[in-house]
Amino acid sequence: MTALLSVIGVPSSAGAHHAGQDLAPAAIRAQGLVTRLQSEGLDVVDAGDVAGEVFRVDASGASARNVDAVVRVARAVADAVEDHARSGRVPVVIGGDCTITIGVVAGLQRVYPEVRLAYLDGDADLRAPDASGSGVLDASGIAHLLGLADTPLARIGARHPILRDEQVALIGYDPGDPDSVNPAELARRPALRHFPYADVLADPESVARQVVAGLAGNDATLVVHFDVDAVDSRDLPLANYPHYATGVPLTTAREVLAILLGAPHVGALVLTEVNPTHDPSGEQLARYVDAVAGAMTEGLGQPTGRSTIPHGAP
Ligand SMILES: [Mn+2]
Prior knowledge:
The protein is of the alpha/beta class. Helix content is 34%, strand content 15%. It has 11 helices and 8 strands. The protein has helices at residues 24-30, 33-39, 67-86, 100-109, 129-132, 141-145, 183-187, 197-202, 204-215, 250-261, 283-300, and strands spanning 4-9, 43-49, 90-94, 115-120, 168-173, 193-196, 221-227, 266-272. Strands 2-1-3-8-7-4-5-6 form an 8-stranded parallel β-sheet, with helices on both faces. The two termini are 25 Å apart. The protein binds manganese (II) ion. Manganese (II) ion (MN) is lined by residues 98, 121-123, 227, 229, 273. Manganese (II) ion binds at residues 98, 121-123, 227, 229, 273.
């Protein structure tokens, strides 16, 4: 059987630098993602949106800005993801800022015993929000998942830390961004697989296959996260926070995504950081939807080789 997909929108910019990403689920649907996947023969239902949040300036001086709203959205995502996964479906979660991926992982962990994360993103997101100075939670997802950041967002799962180093692969990050990655932290974490964008540019297929070989299999359930800022903004200026002259072309991101989505058991796909206000004509969004839908058709349209019905659920 092929994967049974549930599209879940998360109209939230709570954890971002400013509003805009809250508009992405509607904009991506308007570009025809769901009907395109159905026309490719995939079994897709549109499950609608969870309750989102629009960015507001947090003038409290908190080091983790808007954390209450971010946590509320992440918990709602976890509940929706759990429901659909228990029905044997693969949630396709359309964000929304990157903090929603924490909710996706936490929700799947209620259903599957071993959840792992392939994080295709222009950022390593390894800094705690207070260390970066901005307090923007959106740029600290991996730090929260691995327990390097300890805000209420790190405690939404049944486990703490939510993931261990060996359950995560960073793909396509900019190693030169001091707000996102500390080389010493990576050096202290040899089990954390990491492939900066230059590695992906040099051999995207090899990187993607190494990630699949390292994370998938042995009853692991893979979450695939795709932040559009993994793509060089010169090619596709859709990312909420632009990344110029780093990252990879859209065609390369599509190639990597297709291989990741072809892994033995993909439990969820998360699409983040699209800000449709950057593209009033929808021309760039159409390219994005074409790439994502193409990768999903290649990766998820293949027979899974195993049932997606959860087993060993608590
Ligand atoms: Mn990013």
